[in-house]
Amino acid sequence: MTAKDKQIELRDNVLKGLEKVYEKLLEFKKEKNSELVIMEGDKIVKIKPK
Questions:
Q1: Is 17 helix (H, G, I), strand (E, B) or coil?
Q2: Sign, Cα dihedral of 50, 17, 43, 41
Q3: Is the overall model pTM greater than 0.90, yes or no?
């Protein structure tokens, strides 16, 4: 396995981890019925997760 292959594998693992954390965040926000703060363009927006 080359260094480039290792970097690609690491990147893929990091992205999978971020997706999992995002899903858990949405689940937590739904459970607690709290707002999710996101950025749309140059504005900060609070939304209720559905």
A1: helix
A2: negative
A3: no
